[in-house]
C-alpha cells in the first residue's frame, strides 16, 4: 500500500469524525474567503469607479472618515486646474439618497461641461441641458430597478427630476449611480458651494515621477487636501480600512479554530491507534516516516476543508453582491491572490494542527504501544 493511500485509509476508517472535522474547517475557510473577499471586493469596486472615468488622482479632505460627509470648497477646482501638469479637474458631490420607491441609491452631482460627462456610455437619451437643474441621467440597472424610462420623473431626496438619459458602465459602482447637475444636488443636500472630492486628470499619467511631483505641488497649494492616486484611494479609505481590519481579525479567529479541530481530531485518532503505530515502528518505520504519516493526515483534512470552504465562500460572496444594501458596492472575485492565501493557509493549518499529534506518535515506544492493544 502506498504512503498516501495509507493516510487516506486512516481517515476513512473514522468517517463521521473526518467529515465533521472537514465540515468545521470548511466553515472556517468559507468565513475567511467571504470576509476577506468582501473587504477587497468593496475596495476594488471603489477603485474601478475612478479608473473607469480616467481619473488619475483624487483629492479629498485630509483625515476624512466618511467620504460622503466630507466637504471642500468648490472654488478649489480652479486653482488646482492651473497647476502645471494637470490636464482637467472635475468637482464631484456624492450623497446616498432615497428615491420614491424607498431604495437608497448613490447620487453624484457633476459640474456642467466637466470631463466626467464625456466618459458616460449613453444607451439612450442625452445629457442634461446646459443650465438645467431638474434633469438626471441614470444607470441602466437603476432604471430597471425603479421601473423608470427616459422621459419619466423620479423623486430623489427632496427634488423631482426628469430622466433624460440612460447609461451603462463596466464597473459595478457606476451601475448604482444617478447623475444630476452639481447645483441641483448641492441644493438638495444643503451644501451650496461645497463638493465631496475632485477628480483630476494628469497630462502625463504614465510618468510616476511626474505624477509624484504634481501631487507635491498640489499638496503645497492646498494643504487641507489629500491627493491620492486612483489605486491608493481604496487602501486609504478609512471605512474600508476598518472593514479590512475586522475581516482579517474575524478570519484569524476562524482559522485558529480550524487548527484546533485538526489538533483535536488527530489526538483522538492517535489515542485509538497506539497499537497500529507500534506495529509500524516494529516493522521498521523510522521516526520521520511516522511523523510524515500523521502530518499528511492533518494536511489532507485541512486541504479538503480549504477547497470546500473556498467554494462556499465564493458563492457567499456572489450572494452578498446581490443583497440590496451591498449591490453596486461590491465586486465579488475569487482572484489568484485569494486562492494562494487559501492554499497557504490550508497547508499551514494542516502542518500546525498535526505537529503535536505527530510528535507524540514519533515518541511512542513500540512495545508499550503494542501492549495498549
Note down, in words, how this protein is organized.
The protein is of the alpha+beta class and 373 residues long. The protein is built from 13 helices and twelve strands. It starts with a helix and ends with a helix. The relative contact order is 0.19.
Summarize this structure briefly.
The protein has 373 residues and is of the alpha+beta class.
Task: Fill in the keyword field for this structure.
alpha+beta; 10-stranded mixed sheet; single chain; elongated
Count of the separate structural domains? 2
Share of β-strand residues = 15-25%
The total beta strand count reads 12
Number of H/I helices: 13
Describe the global form. elongated
Please report the distance between the alpha carbons of the first and last residues.
23 Å
Mean pLDDT: 82
Helix content: 40-55%
Write the topology of this structure.
Elements: H1 3-12, H2 15-51, E1 57-61, E2 72-73, H3 76-81, E3 86-98, E4 104-110, H4 115-118, E5 121-125, E6 135-139, H5 140-146, E7 153-156, E8 159-168, E9 177-181, H6 182-189, E10 194-195, E11 197-202, H7 208-221, E12 225-229, H8 230-233, H9 238-272, H10 274-282, H11 287-322, H12 336-363, H13 366-371
Parallel strand pairs: 4-9, 6-8
Antiparallel strand pairs: 1-11, 1-12, 2-10, 3-4, 3-11, 5-8, 6-9, 7-8
Helix pairs in contact: 1-11, 2-9, 2-11, 9-11, 9-12, 11-12
Amino acid at each position: 500500500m502506498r504512503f498516501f493511500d495509507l493516510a487516506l485509509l486512516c481517515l476513512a476508517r473514522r468517517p463521521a469524525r473526518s467529515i465533521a472535522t472537514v465540515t468545521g474547517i470548511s466553515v472556517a475557510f468559507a468565513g475567511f474567503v467571504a470576509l476577506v473577499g468582501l473587504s477587497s471586493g468593496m475596495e476594488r469596486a471603489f477603485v474601478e469607479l475612478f479608473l473607469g472615468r480616467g481619473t488619475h488622482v483624487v483629492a479629498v479632505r485630509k483625515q476624512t472618515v466618511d467620504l460622503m460627509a466630507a466637504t471642500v470648497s468648490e472654488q478649489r477646482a480652479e486653482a488646482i486646474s492651473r497647476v502645471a501638469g494637470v490636464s482637467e479637474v472635475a468637482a464631484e458631490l456624492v450623497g446616498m439618497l432615497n428615491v420614491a420607491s424607498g431604495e437608497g441609491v448613490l447620487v453624484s452631482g457633476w459640474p456642467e461641461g466637466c470631463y466626467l460627462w464625456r466618459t458616460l456610455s449613453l444607451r439612450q437619451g442625452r445629457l442634461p441641458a446646459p443650465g438645467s437643474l431638474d434633469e438626471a441621467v441614470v444607470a441602466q440597472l437603476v432604471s430597471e430597478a425603479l421601473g423608470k424610462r427616459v422621459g419619466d420623473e423620479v423623486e430623489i431626496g427632496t427634488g423631482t427630476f426628469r430622466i433624460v438619459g440612460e447609461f451603462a458602465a463596466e464597473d459595478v459602482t457606476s451601475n448604482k449611480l444617478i447623475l444630476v447637475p452639481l447645483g441641483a444636488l448641492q441644493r438638495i443636500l444643503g451644501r451650496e458651494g461645497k463638493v465631496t472630492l475632485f477628480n483630476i486628470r494628469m497630462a502625463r499619467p504614465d510618468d510616476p515621477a511626474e505624477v509624484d511631483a504634481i501631487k507635491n505641488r498640489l499638496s503645497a497649494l492646498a494643504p487641507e487636501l489629500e491627493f491620492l492616486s486612483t489605486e491608493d484611494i481604496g487602501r486609504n479609505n478609512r471605512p474600508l480600512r476598518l472593514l479590512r481590519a475586522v475581516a482579517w481579525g474575524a478570519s484569524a479567529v476562524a482559522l485558529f479554530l480550524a487548527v484546533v479541530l485538526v489538533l483535536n481530531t488527530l489526538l483522538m485518532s492517535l489515542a485509538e491507534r497506539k497499537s497500529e503505530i507500534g506495529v509500524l515502528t516494529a516493522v521498521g518505520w523510522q521516526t520521520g516516516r511516522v511523523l510524515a504519516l500523521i502530518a499528511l493526515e492533518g494536511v489532507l483534512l485541512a486541504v479538503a476543508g480549504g477547497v470546500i470552504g473556498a467554494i462556499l465562500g465564493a458563492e457567499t460572496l456572489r450572494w452578498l453582491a446581490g443583497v440590496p444594501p451591498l449591490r453596486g458596492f461590491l465586486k465579488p472575485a475569487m482572484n489568484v491572490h485569494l486562492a494562494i492565501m487559501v492554499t497557504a493557509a490550508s497547508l499551514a493549518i494542516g502542518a500546525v494542527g498535526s505537529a503535536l499529534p505527530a510528535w507524540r506518535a514519533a515518541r511512542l515506544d513500540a512495545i508499550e504501544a503494542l501492549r495498549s492493544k
